[in-house]
Amino acid sequence: MAESIQLEVVTPSGPVVSDKVEIVSAPGYGGDFGVLANHAPFLSTIKIGSLIYKKDGKDNYLMVSGGFCEVSNNKITFLVESAESGQQIDVGRALRAKERAEKRIAEAKTQAEKINMVRAQAALQRALARIRVAEKQPK
Q1: CA distance 26 to 64
Q2: Which of 16-25, 90-99, 100-109 shows the lowest per-residue confidence on average (mean pLDDT)?
């Protein structure tokens, strides 16, 4: 087995993942990034998207929605608002949320409502991330 790094994914509800993994790929605000064992220390903000980690040669996917990441001492820790695996995602619900968000964005454009636009865009990003992660889940 390749060298590993300790992955911790924590939400306000508690830990989601705590495991030794081979590689982690995450959606940072400065761009997606990857981390292998013995990576140099750094901090990053995390945006809504797919967090991918490889364990025993198999890719695992989580939808994460915003937070922070720290890499230090061969450990990568994510403190995020939410994290959901493909098995936890209700695709039908995510598709309905996507449709509602797209409708709100269209309405906000005509009404020039900045706050509703920002909220709708965030809801759309969460729905799209959930759908992408659920699609990666083995059937």
Answers
A1: 9
A2: 100-109
Distance CA 98, CA 66 (A): 18
pLDDT tens sequence across 75-104: 999 999 999 887 777 788 888 888 888 888
Q: Which residues contact 32 (CB under 8 A, 6 or more apart)?
A: 25, 26, 49
Place of tokens 């636009």: 117
- Tokens 């020039």, residue? 112
Rounded mean pLDDT of 4-16? 95
Distance CA(75)–CA(29), nearest Å, equals 20
Q: Are 69 and 46 in contact (CB under 8 A)?
A: yes
Task: List, in order of start, the domains of the chain with CATH numbers.
Answer: 5-86 (2.60.15.10), 90-136 (1.20.5)
Q: Can you tell me the distance from the alpha carbon of 46 to that of 1, in angstroms, rounded to the nearest whole number?
A: 29
- The DSSP line for 38-101 is TPPPEEEEE-SEEEEEEETTEEEEEEE-SEEEEEETTEEEEEES-EEEGGG--HHHHHHHHHHH
